[in-house]
Design a protein that fits this description.
- Pathway: Cofactor biosynthesis; tetrahydrofolate biosynthesis; 5,6,7,8-tetrahydrofolate from 7,8-dihydrofolate: step 1/1.
- Keywords: NADP, One-carbon metabolism, Oxidoreductase.
- This is Dihydrofolate reductase.
- By secondary structure, the chain is an alpha/beta fold.
- It has a single domain, classed as 3-Layer(aba) Sandwich (Dihydrofolate Reductase, subunit A).
- Helix content is 22%, strand content 31%.
- It has an eight-stranded mixed sheet with strand order 5-4-3-6-1-7-10-9, with helices on both faces. It has a two-stranded antiparallel ribbon with strand order 2-8.
- Bound molecules: NADP nicotinamide-adenine-dinucleotide phosphate.
């Protein structure tokens, strides 16, 4: 499975249920990697989308047994169920879009990390769990300079489990 997220220089990922920043270049990167694939998100992250993301299979991770997600949204209840889902759907690319709790529970199973580094420090209340990058190899790194639409520099990284 693949993790995709953006973090600031202190590993912050969220603030008050939303992203701490507005960076269209990172949104485009997210779209490019998730369109056509299966996206699994925690219930808080899914709520931040406001609606299922189009052209992707939307799966929500929640402990709740009674849910009222829009039709078409699938539900899983544990990290183990996510692992089983991936094994049972080998034709699908499974991408985990967070948040912190979801990343933490699936860290043992992830093969690929798509990390965007935002070159700034923001006010935040949600942080990426600690990742041992010695277990991964950096295979791609692309820098995006600040521009009129993106106030901060970005580094798009791809890491593969060794
Ligand atoms: N920068 C980024 O790339 C990025 C990415 C994602 C999210 N975010 C931000 O991060 C914040 C949300 O993250 P968060 O950590 O607070 O919440 P989250 O992980 O999105 O959602 C937490 C909820 O997901 C469910 N859940 C998580 N792990 C589970 C597991 N292993 N088994 C069963 N259910 C599980 C539970 O739902 P129930 O309570 O319904 O049981 C839990 O309360 C927001 O601010 C969001 O904008 C940022």
């Amino acid at each position: 499975m693949i993790f995709i997220w953006a973090e600031d220089q202190q590993h912050a990922i969220g603030h008050k249920g939303q992203l701490p920043w507005h960076l269209p270049a990172d949104m485009a990167f997210f779209k490019q990697h998730t369109i056509g694939n299966t996206l699994i998100s925690g219930s808080r992250t899914f709520a931040s989308y406001k609606k299922p993301l189009p052209h992707r299979k939307n799966i929500v991770l929640t402990s709740r047994t009674h849910t009222d997600f829009p039709s078409g949204v699938e539900v899983l209840h544990s990290a183990e169920e996510v692992v089983e889902y991936e094994q049972e759907h080998p034709d699908e690319t499974v991408i985990i879009s967070g948040g912190a709790r979801v990343f933490k529970s699936l860290l043992p199973y992830v093969d690929t990390l798509l990390r965007t580094r935002v070159l700034h420090t923001f006010e935040a209340d949600t942080y990426m769990p600690e990742i041992d990058y010695n277990q991964f190899k950096l295979i791609e790194s692309t820098t995006h300079q600040p521009d009129e639409k993106n106030q901060y520099g970005l580094i798009f990284e791809r890491w593969q489990r060794r």
